[in-house]
Amino acid sequence: MASPIPHPEREEIRVEAVLHALADPVRLRIVRELAAHEEGLSCGVLDLGITASTLTHHVRTLREAGVVRVRPRGTSRISTLRRADLDALYPGLLDGVLAARR
Amino acid sequence: MASPIPHPEREEIRVEAVLHALADPVRLRIVRELAAHEEGLSCGVLDLGITASTLTHHVRTLREAGVVRVRPRGTSRISTLRRADLDALYPGLLDGVLAARR
Question: Where in this chain does the record put each HTH arsR-type domain (chains A, B) (predicted)?
Answer without folding.
Answer: 7-101
